[in-house]
Fold each of these.
Amino acid sequence: MELVLNEISKKFKDKLAVNNFSMTLTSGVYGLLGPNGSGKTTLMRMIADVMPETEGSIKVDGVDKRTMDGEYRALLGYLPQDIGFYKNWSADKFLLYVAALKGIDKKEAKRKIDDLLEFVNLTQDRKRKIGKYSGGMKQRLGIAQALLGDPKILILDEPTAGLDPNERIRFKNLLSSISKDKIILFSTHIASDIEFIANHILIMKEGQLIDHGSVQDVLGNAKGKVWHCKIDESQLFDFENKFKVANILREEDKVLLRIISNEKPMEDAQLQEPNLEDVFLHYFNEKSNI
């Protein structure tokens, strides 16, 4: 399957939220990385057919999604950033409702729901009112509804928000295991969520696609710009004001800094291998000399 985004834009009055975005997606995990307000959610809502694009087109195997209509939506699993729940419904009732909307046979839906509730660790709470759920439990239920119906295009907007470390690992492992025959678009502003599972990274800034490629391709853009520095406490304020500081660690009477800089920040600075968080800082955290 091939999902083609062809020069799509979205304008709200005077604001251009997504600007001329083009990309071809095939099976695999795509990490959509960018700060809040970069246009990630608007882009995903257009792909999820929740919001129409102002310009451009979205096609599956050469067919426009507007022509496909219900056939296109049948391919989708969507987890929005803020999912609405009926507070007095149980997880069972909610998932059966979503399954009915997706046209899934009731007997098959019940079997799938059992499996999904087990996966998201909500089996024991399946009859409990959703209004009594914690934020993390609601997020896990949102993940379950997105996976109902074995969607071929899975759109996940900040899916790991509210999950504890074990749940995040389980979820990321699941995405990797099911990605062979699915297009998975995973939006986040937390770089570590996608560094080890994404086949392809898309970086958005101010509504535009500013970089994309494999993880190694994207990391290459920060190569030679990540430094390890050991300074005195008295120097910390000056370094924080002059450079992008990715990490601060106090060690005895010294302070260890991880700095993103085009230039060597001090004589004794040592180059480090970049990670995706470094790339994020490289693009999005403004400082004087970068």
Amino acid sequence: MSETLKNKYQVCEEIGRGRFGVISQCFSPTKNSFFTCKTIEKSLLADQADRDCLEKEPKVMLFLPPHPNILELHPSG
């Protein structure tokens, strides 16, 4: 997990785990709000196809309409 993320958010409990990473609940003291954070372990990416999928995921999510079951993306930096 990056130092920038640790400095900006209080990382709370793990709420999920996938092939490449971990989903955690995070708290932003500056916004006084909870967020969900997905961190990726890049060393687990086996090949270029994995890297391509990882790069495309946030781009695809930006085109999805608002929905209660779809996360909204927020910048981490």
Amino acid sequence: MEAVTAHALRRRFGSVEALAGVDLAIPAGSVHGLLGPNGAGKTTLVRILTTLLRATDGTATVAGFDVRREPDRVRAHIGLVGQHAAVDEILSGRQNLEMFGRLYHLGRVAARARADALLAEFGLADTGTRAVSTYSGGMRRRLDLAASLITAPPVLFLDEPTTGLDPRSRGEVWDAVRALVAGGTTVLLTTQYLEEVDRLADQVTVIDHGRVIATGTPSALKGQLGGDRIDVVVADLVDLPATAALLARITGDTPDTDEDHRRVGVAVTDRMAALTATVRALADSGIAVDDVTLRRPTLDEVFLHLTATDSNSDAEKVTA
């Protein structure tokens, strides 16, 4: 069952087409990552799906309800967490959640019970009586997530939920998202941190210039860059060209060079054979290295490759 769908969604602002026929299908109980450069149309798509903006053309459903014809029912079945926490710093964590409960027309007793349940669910029970101004960044974002779930909506939209957080706080938010999905919540996640999508998302959609240019699992999208890669960090920058030529001979592919980090990287097919050949050739050539790494491509590399391709051509959508 699909919790979120979009078919041929278009949105124009005057002569500018922010969305140019976007299709989307998100299974219930999954995390779907939405990636794209600034201005790609991510925010426009999320605003349409959350009924904050009407599409020019096309259709979309959320939790089984049409966003154009049934906006009230859509809003009753979603939660939305923006880039900035929406909680009151003067109030305590519990008071914030009780306030949101009353705004959603829960009775006083029901709002208090829901607040207590959410504080426990998000690991904030021991700090529920403290003012939010004393919370860490990760605690505030977890409280913000809790506030969006007062009515236990089946679909949650997260718009860059960990922007500005330190690594520990980001990890706390990731754990909270995983717990939500384990409980059956469907999550649409937009983020600038590709590591976040790699760790959380079951499927990824990449959009650019208002259209989908790739969709698939993080693993499948990374596989488009040739599976495994070898990175060599040379001890002396002067050896970078010779190392690139060596890797080109071994792999038959054109390596990428990064002078700032004295690194040469190239895609490989037979990972162990290529690694063995590279280490042997480096030793035979006398090139001193600081590191040799065999790894999978990162989503950052996939993202840069896909958006660079889309910027320079009318490449067809990639499905993986």
Amino acid sequence: MSLLKSQKSLESWLADYAVSHRNVANKKIHFVCVPVIFLTIVAFLMNVHYALMAVVAVGMLWFYLRLSTSLFVAMMVFMVICMTLVHFLPVNIWVWLAIFVIAWIGQFIGHKIEGAKPSFFEDLQFLLIGPAWVALSVSGKMPNLQASY
């Protein structure tokens, strides 16, 4: 396993993720809930300690860098936006927890509509692919995908 390049390409990850995200309603739910979940996780980590958030951020950004430099930049910008929001919003941990739970309920409703289980049930790395999939979809920079299985 290379530390500099992922064994699986970004396109392969995205194609595999897209298999259980084809339904329009499920996609719309994900476009809202995935960024919200990401934001709440940032809030949890920052509420524990800013250093913990920094360590987790470095690990996540390393994952993205191994897949794509442009994805790394996009996710770093999104992460900074999330950290800025958490830092300046006067929201306590219980509000973040409620938002987190509601967003996950939305995700599971989306997958019920889709008729497919969430991708992360197969591989936890899909929890990092979800935000990338949303970012690339919303930005119009989604590559042409073929499932890798």
